[in-house]
Every structure is written in C-alpha cells, then in structure tokens.
Amino acid sequence: MTGELTGRTVLVTGAGRGIGRSEALYLAAAGANVVVNDPGVQIDGHGGDERVAAAVVDEIRARGGHAVADTGSVTDWADARRMVDLAVAEFGDLHAVVNNATIEVNKALERLSEAEFDDVVAVKLKGTFAVSRWATSYWRSRVEAGVRDDRAIVNTASGSGLLNPLPTQTNYAAANAGVAAMTMVHALELRRLGIRVNCVSPSMVRSRLTNSVPGMDETTPEGQLDPKDPIVVAPLVAYLVSEGCPLTGQVLSVRGSSITVNHGWTGGAQINKDAGLWTVPELAESLTALPLEDPFDRLASALGGALGGQGRDAFEAMVNADLDKC
C-alpha cells in the first residue's frame, strides 16, 4: 500500500501501543503524515509516560516516514483542540482522525466505583467526541473558506458493547456502544461537509487489554498471518481514511482476516393487540411465547470457541465464579 496515503495527515489517538501503534505504523508506511497521540498511561488511565508516543514517532521516522508526537489527554477539552492544531501546524492540514484511545477497569457492578465508571467513559466516549468535535470545527472552517477536501473519522468500538457485552465491563461496554451510536449520528450530520464517519470493532486482537483472555497467547505457524496480531485492523482503517473511500455510517467488526458489517439493534419478533391497553397477564402470556434469546446463550455462542468450547451452563458457571472475584 506504499504511497496510497501520501499527502494525507492522520491523527491517531492511543497510538503508543497495541492497535493504535499498528495503525500509526501502517498509515505512515502508506505515506501518511501521522500525529501519534498517547499520554502513555497505564491500562486503568493512571500515570503517564511521554516516551511511549515518542518511541512510535522515532520508529516511523527511522523508516523514512513523517510523524509527530502528542501526549495530550483526549478527555481534556483543550488538549483535544491542541492535537488538532498540532497536525495543522506541523503538516499544513488534517484529513482524518482515528479515535482509538481507551482504558479499562473491569469490576463487578457492585464493586465498581463512580470514578472507575467515569474514567473509562471519559476516555472512550467523551474522548471520541472531543477529538471529533475539534477536527470537525477545523474542517467546517475550511469549507466556509471554500476548501472542501476529503475528510474522514474512524472510531473504534468493541464487541463488548456491540455483539457480546461482557460481565465486569459495565463502563467499557456502555462507552463502546455509545461510540457506535455516535458514529451513526455523526455520519448523518457531517455528510453535508464532505466528512465520512465509520467505526471499526476489533475482536480477539492481542493488546494490553486482552492479554489475560484465554487463547491470546496461542502461537501461529511461521509464515502464516497471526489473526490476533493488531496489524489485522490497520488495512481497514487505512482504507476508511483514504481519499475517495465511499463508506460512511458503517460499523465493521474485524476478526483475523474476516470483516463483518454490523447492523446494530434491529427489530425482532413482535406482539400486537387489536384494541385497548395491554394487561399484565396478557403480556406474561404473549411475551414469554416469543423466541427470546438468553444473554448467556449469546455470550457463549460468541466466545465459547475462544474459551475452549464450554457448554452454555459451564460457561455461565465460569463467568459467575469470575465475577465473585472481581
């Protein structure tokens, strides 16, 4: 893909490690100027290390690419604006944003603190909003000045929140579902400005957040693509930020070499009453007759293979036992 993104500037948040790092390296190899944003925090959002973003920039430059580091927090309104301004000051323009930043604190609901809920939602949901907002503000100013270039936003969600919300992830699942919903809203809003908005949802990808998931340490035969390598997400992101890509308003799951189009919440079976208000006994009879899906059935179907193929009952018992420890 060398040269396909030459001349385009892309801001990638959370680009110091894992998926974001792979995206930044891939985009730079394709010719893009990359703003590598990462404050270098721990998984739970605490701490900070400026060397994390700087190391990725050094790696890109060593390969002949163009990049600049930014260590601002996506949760900080002023920092979000500054990283957009940095892209324009350093490279003359900003063409795309990849909202990848996230943190994680996994605890059962009754043990999750207010701060732990707020912190995760702030990075994933507010951070996606803040950076997108300032990028769009800049792009709108360019349109008003008579410059209408190809612009793109790529958000990052997770199966936890879309397809298989996971126990202990009240904060993370809710924030990711919110990112997917925000993607659709912004795709509708921003078409008038020539801005495309899509969302990628990596699944079973190796990162700091997933290292403890069973099966993540499995090796792949030499010479074959490792389906859990975060690089599997990068080509899709590169396509979505490329000039002329027609896609907008899409939420795309990535698992190994498979890409799935998600349709979000869709209507299912329905009950109707010809006249009058439903009564509770009528609802009890009619609703329980519908083909309702148990959430543990859905979760076991989504993750059972990755966790050894346990049956539904064994899977529920395993999850409940883990919850008592969180």
Helix content: 40-55%
Q: How much β-strand is present in the residues?
A: 5-15%
- Oligomeric assembly: single chain
Name of the top-level CATH class of the largest domain: Alpha Beta
Strand order of the largest sheet: 3-2-1-4-5-6-7-8
What is the H-and-E element order?
A: EHEHEHEHEHHEHEEHHH
Task: Note the overall shape.
Answer: globular
Report the strand count: 8
| Most strands sheet | 8 strands, mixed
CATH superfamily of the largest domain: NAD(P)-binding Rossmann-like Domain
Summarize the structure.
With 326 residues, this protein is α/β, with parallel strands linked by helices. 40% of the residues lie in helices and 13% in strands. The chain folds into two domains: 7-260, NAD(P)-binding Rossmann-like Domain (Rossmann fold), CATH 3.40.50; 278-323, no CATH class.
Textual characterization of the structure:
This protein is an alpha/beta fold and 326 residues long. It has two domains: 7-260, 3-Layer(aba) Sandwich (Rossmann fold), CATH 3.40.50; 278-323, no CATH class. It is 40% helix and 13% strand. The protein has helices at residues 18-29, 51-62, 77-91, 114-144, 159-162, 170-190, 234-241, 280-287, 295-303, 312-323, and strands at 9-13, 33-37, 66-70, 96-99, 151-156, 195-202, 251-255, 258-262. β6, α7 (234-241) and β7 form a beta-alpha-beta unit. α1 (18-29) packs across α7, α3 (77-91) packs across α4 (114-144) and α4 packs parallel to α6. The mean pLDDT is 89.
